[in-house]
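Structure first, sequence second, as always.
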């Protein structure tokens, strides 16, 4: 294996691939033996809610009334029905294919079958993003065994299919084949109508001044966002109900402890952890309150810095990583599986990046985020009452992703700071 990797890949690629292979092998060995930590923490509740996201959303989509529209005007906000209607149309199709019974073995088979198909498509597209030859097989396969991929597959979350569409867009949005390029635009529009934030990848067209194509992409996005309202009960009258659900969704996840990205992992921990020392516990509450007051503004500024990278003279991989890190670190509910957004960007990074200290540091950050190896948190030694769904791995994954957030924003601000300084000197 060592000679195979050495002969085919660049130094940066070899470091990443060899390290990920080691982490995956160690994860599998510990998972089977059960000798260290709880490797089943790689998924929620040790896999006891297999395909839960798919099956639950099929329930909400069953009657094509996901927002609980009724003529009596009464609506109780439901935090878990917060997709746009195109997603519920897709899940209604899965519901029909499942024999209209989400508790049946057929429903589970349909859900798993869709996830397997999504994984296969993601594998093929990541392969082609990395290279047109066989060298892309190993990096693409390793991505399927990464922490966010395992997490999303087990949950049966729509983000898996969404990332397939984003990766397809990145592969073909510059294609000379007009059909493939148009399919790429349609793919991103569907991804945006499923998960909203992927729409930011459309800014790549603006950064290249492809105005007509950008306008066409926006038109596709509007079409896929609003037209499906006509096919659910209540049509456009569901829009305010959807907005109420989104607000309820934000409130529900705001201080919930679970594997997530962004500063709210730490603020929610500080609110919910119980220490043997009341003085420390009370002061952590104050820290959490200050974080919630300040960090939303910091994240907004960092997001602007990241998006400014798109209009800077930077490599393509830096631009895509900058978009992905906004999608991962800015939203309130950004679970572990959102790191899937990094995978197509990672392929571009490994394909284009040369060996440097900066790129080696990025490789380390990606390894921390993507490695499935689970490391327990020393609760007893620190006198902490252990919460569910949380370990040391969640902490360093979060910090690594936030570091990429900071680095990307710094790259954007640095570039434009130099440009502004140069212009002011010439004037």
């Amino acid at each position: 294996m060592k000679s195979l990797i050495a002969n085919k890949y660049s130094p940066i690629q070899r470091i990443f691939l060899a390290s990920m292979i080691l982490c995956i092998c160690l994860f599998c060995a510990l998972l089977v033996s059960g000798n260290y930590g709880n490797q089943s923490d790689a998924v929620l509740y040790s896999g006891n809610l297999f395909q839960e996201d798919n099956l639950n959303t099929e329930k909400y989509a069953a009657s094509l009334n996901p927002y609980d529209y009724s003529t009596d005007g009464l609506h109780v906000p439901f935090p878990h029905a917060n997709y746009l209607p195109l997603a519920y149309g897709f899940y209604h199709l899965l519901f029909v294919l499942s024999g209209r019974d989400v508790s049946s073995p057929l429903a589970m088979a349909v859900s798993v079958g869709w996830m397997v198909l999504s994984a296969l498509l993601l594998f093929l597209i990541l392969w082609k993003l990395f290279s047109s030859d066989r060298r892309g097989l190993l990096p693409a396969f390793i991505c399927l065994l990464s922490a966010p991929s395992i997490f999303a597959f087990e949950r049966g979350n729509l983000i898996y299919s969404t990332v397939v569409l984003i990766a397809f867009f990145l592969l073909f949005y510059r294609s000379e084949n007009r059909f493939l390029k148009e399919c790429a635009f349609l793919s991103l529009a569907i991804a945006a109508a499923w998960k909203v934030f992927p729409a930011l990848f459309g800014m790549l067209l603006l950064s290249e001044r492809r105005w007509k194509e950008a306008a066409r992409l926006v038109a596709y996005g509007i079409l896929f966002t609003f037209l499906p309202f006509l096919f659910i009960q209540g049509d456009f009258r569901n829009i305010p109900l959807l907005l109420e659900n989104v607000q309820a969704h934000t409130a529900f996840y705001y201080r919930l402890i679970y594997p997530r990205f962004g500063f709210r992992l730490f603020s929610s921990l500080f609110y919910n952890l119980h220490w043997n020392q009341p003085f420390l516990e009370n002061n952590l509450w104050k820290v959490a309150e200050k974080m919630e007051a300040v960090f939303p503004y910091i994240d907004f500024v960092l997001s602007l810095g990241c998006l400014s990278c798109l209009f800077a003279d930077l490599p393509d991989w830096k631009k895509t990583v900058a978009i992905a890190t906004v999608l991962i670190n800015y939203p309130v509910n950004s679970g572990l599986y959102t790191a899937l957004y990094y995978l197509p960007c990672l392929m571009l990074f490994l394909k284009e990046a040369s060996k440097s200290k900066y790129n080696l540091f990025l490789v380390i950050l990606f390894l921390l985020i993507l490695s499935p190896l689970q490391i327990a948190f020393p609760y007893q030694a620190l006198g902490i009452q252990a919460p569910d769904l949380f370990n040391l791995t969640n902490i360093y994954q979060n910090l690594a992703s936030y570091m990429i957030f900071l680095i990307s924003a710094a790259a954007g601000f640095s570039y434009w700071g130099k440009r502004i300084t140069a212009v002011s000197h010439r004037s």
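Margin note: The radius of gyration is 22 Å.
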